[in-house]
TrEMBL record:
CDD domains: ABC_Metallic_Cations. This is Manganese/zinc/iron transport system ATP-binding protein. GO terms for molecular function: ATP binding; ATP hydrolysis activity. The keyword Disulfide bond does not apply. Belongs to the ABC transporter superfamily. Keywords: ATP-binding, Nucleotide-binding, Transport. Residues 6-237 form the ABC transporter domain. SUPFAM superfamilies: P-loop containing nucleoside triphosphate hydrolases. SMART domains: AAA (SM00382).
């Protein structure tokens, strides 16, 4: 029986008193590739932010390795949803990836050769090493997304939480990212990934959480990825696009 890396119990979150997710109970297995799937506005990013301690729930609790999120964040690499990040600050690609190392060193320590080598390794995994000195404001959307993934790889966390990392990514890069995720899983890492394309859930993930304001189904792909569950989640056409 694999242990749970995340346990969420009876979590409800509201914005300005409007509840957007309610009574969420879920578990994410260690060493899994778990997808979070559901229509626009289903509360996927809200759930991820609660796990990352970025919002204040109305009620309920989140535990990461049995600890409160704020005590467990060091071991998590987080890739926010595209559009939630301001890319206008003057920084090079290499510096953005090096930020992935600060959690290990603290903000005031100098980066050394080993840190730069780790950052270059991560950039090369994402096939972005040729852009290392480029300003991030001067990259395409997909290239920025790859830099962000390189930063997460450079972080060398045990657990990766990614909010639609494949959004706006070309198919070659998509395969590259999925292969990288599978290789990291083989080394013992765990993944919780918001995913939009229903056609690739089975191919890319081994567990799934189907969400639409509450949890509709969760478990292994075999257990939970069923037509009736998907229909139930996407049935409310007012929240789909
Ligand atoms: N900061 C906020 N203030 C007020 N309402 C918000 C805020 N963030 C999200 N919402 C609302 O909460 C609901 C859930 O939003 P959330 O971003 O979690 O959905 P999502 O499932 O990630 O959607 P998408 O697929 O579009 O990314 C939506 O109705 C959204 O309008
Ligand atoms: Mg979202």
């Amino acid at each position: 029986m694999t242990r749970n890396i995340i346990e969420v119990s009876d979590l409800s979150v509201a914005y300005a008193h409007n509840p957007v997710i309610w009574h969420i109970n879920l578990a994410v297995k260690a060493n899994s590739r778990t997808a979070v799937v559901g229509p626009n506005g289903a509360g996927k990013s809200t759930l991820i932010k609660s796990i990352m301690n970025l919002n204040k729930p109305l009620s309920g609790k989140v535990e990461i390795n049995g600890k409160k999120p704020k005590h467990a964040l060091k071991n998590i690499a987080y890739v926010p949803q595209k559009g939630e990040v301001n890319w206008d600050f003057p920084t090079t690609v290499l510096d953005v990836v090096l930020m992935g190392r600060y959690v290990h060193k603290g903000w005031f320590k100098r980066m050394n050769k080993a840190d730069v080598a780790a950052a270059m390794d991560a950039l090369s995994t994402m096939k972005m090493e040729a852009f290392k000195d480029r300003q991030i404001s001067e990259l395409s959307g997909g290239q920025r997304q790859r830099v962000f993934l390189a930063r997460a790889i450079c972080h060398d966390a045990d657990f990766y939480i990614m909010d639609e990392p494949l959004q706006g990514i070309d198919i070659t890069t998509e395969k590259l990212i999925i292969d990288t995720i599978k290789a990291l899983q083989a080394k013992g890492k765990s993944f919780l990934v918001v995913h939009h394309n229903l056609d690739t859930v089975e191919e890319y993930f081994d567990h799934v959480i189907i969400l639409n304001k509450s949890v509709i189904a969760q478990g292994t792909i075999e257990e939970a990825w069923k037509k009736e569950n998907i229909d139930k989640a996407y049935d409310d056409r007012s929240v789909t696009t």
